[in-house]
């Protein structure tokens, strides 16, 4: 297969995965550094598509381009890489500014030595179909785009907590343990811990713009971490006009607290 055909296959796969996730795709006109775009949180998110290869238990892909002007990376020009792995038939969305300028890898399994710092797990970036309810177009003010007849939509990937029943007794069932482990997994990144701590001290729902300013990360990176926390059930997301507001899901927090709650009296 020619390189151009591999690129076209990756772009088609990324578009299909974004549509399945509830996005409405915009294709750029003219020469642009990105392949596709979609609207989210009141702004345009740009995506450059890449094809990944399997190498020693990891997905490897280029984070630069080679053209007439030489070698260029995408930092500061594109928000996300849409990475497609043909062997695994999966698409991954990865913030561009968080990656090296030459080549990046996504591990398929954790490091054997248990190291987590600087390790990017593919499972943290995989793009899954939307499980939300209702028409995705209801999340956007269509009047903003009607003049150009190019209505777009941003989608809230909100998944309820997998287990809502309180933990009774001294032992936890397998299903409850799995659901609670997903909550802890969502807190495995220090930036997500900072976001949860920020919301815990806010006392009310906080706008995504205020979270971005407080965390000192790029907007696409903050949106990525917020999606992880929402999909795990730790955060609730509320749409107000073109902005999203986030608050803690108290039931999920209680579920975490139940893990370390001591039953009965100490001897």
User: What is the name of the CATH topology of the largest domain?
Assistant: Trna Endonuclease, Chain: A, domain 1
Order of helices and strands: HEEEEEEEEHHEHHEEH
Q: Could you give the count of β-strands?
A: 11
CATH class of the largest domain: Alpha Beta
> Which word captures the global form?
globular
What does the average pLDDT come to?
A: 77
Helices and strands, with pairings:
Layout: H1 3-20, E1 36-40, E2 43-55, E3 58-62, E4 64-67, E5 70-73, E6 80-85, E7 90-95, E8 103-107, H2 174-186, H3 190-202, E9 206-207, H4 208-215, H5 219-232, E10 235-240, E11 243-248, H6 250-260
Parallel strand pairs: 2-6
Antiparallel strand pairs: 1-2, 2-3, 3-8, 4-5, 6-7, 9-11, 10-11
Question: What descriptive keywords fit this protein?
Answer:
single chain, 267 residues, alpha+beta, Trna Endonuclease, Chain: A, domain 1, Arc Repressor Mutant, subunit A, 2 domains, 6-stranded mixed sheet, 3-stranded antiparallel sheet, 6 helices, 23% strand, globular
Walkthrough of the structure:
With 267 residues, the chain is of the alpha+beta class. The protein has two domains: 3-124, Trna Endonuclease, Chain: A, domain 1 (3-Layer(aba) Sandwich); 158-260, Winged helix-like DNA-binding domain superfamily/Winged helix DNA-binding domain (Arc Repressor Mutant, subunit A, Orthogonal Bundle), CATH 1.10.10. It contains six helices and eleven strands. It has helices at residues 3-20, 174-186, 190-202, 208-215, 219-232, 250-260; strands spanning 36-40, 43-55, 58-62, 64-67, 70-73, 80-85, 90-95, 103-107, 206-207, 235-240, 243-248. Strands 1, 2, 3, 6, 7 and 8 form a six-stranded mixed beta sheet that branches. It has a three-stranded antiparallel beta sheet with strand order 9-11-10. It has a two-stranded antiparallel sheet with strand order 4-5. Strand 4 (64-67) and strand 5 form a beta hairpin. The model is unreliable at 133-167 (pLDDT under 50).
């Amino acid at each position: 297969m020619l390189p151009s055909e591999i690129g076209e296959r990756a772009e088609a796969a990324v578009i299909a995965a974004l549509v399945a996730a509830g996005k409405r795709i915009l294709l750029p006109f003219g020469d642009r550094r990105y392949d596709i775009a979609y609207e989210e949180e009141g702004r345009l998110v740009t995506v450059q598509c890449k094809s990944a290869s399997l190498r020693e238990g990891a997905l490897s892909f280029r984070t630069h381009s080679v053209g007439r002007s030489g070698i260029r990376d995408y930092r500061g020009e594109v928000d996300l890489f849409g990475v497609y792995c043909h062997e695994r038939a999966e698409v991954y969305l990865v913030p561009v500014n968080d990656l090296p300028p030459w080549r990046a890898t996504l591990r398929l399994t954790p490091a054997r030595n248990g190291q987590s710092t600087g390790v990017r797990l593919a499972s943290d970036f995989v793009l899954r179909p939307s499980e939300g309810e209702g028409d995705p177009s209801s999340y956007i003010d269509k009047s903003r785009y009607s003049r150009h007849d190019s209505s777009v939509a941003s989608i809230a990937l909100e998944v309820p907590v997998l287990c809502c029943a309180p933990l009774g007794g001294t032992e936890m069932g397998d299903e409850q343990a799995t659901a609670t482990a997903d909550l802890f997994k969502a807190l495995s990144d220090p930036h997500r811990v900072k976001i949860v701590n920020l919301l815990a001290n806010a006392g009310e729902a906080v706008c995504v713009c205020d979270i971005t300013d407080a965390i000192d990360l790029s907007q696409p990176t903050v949106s990525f971490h917020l999606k992880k926390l929402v999909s795990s059930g730790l955060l609730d997301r509320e749409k107000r006009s073109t902005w999203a507001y986030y608050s803690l899901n108290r039931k999920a927090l209680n579920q975490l607290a139940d893990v370390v709650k001591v039953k009965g009296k100490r001897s």
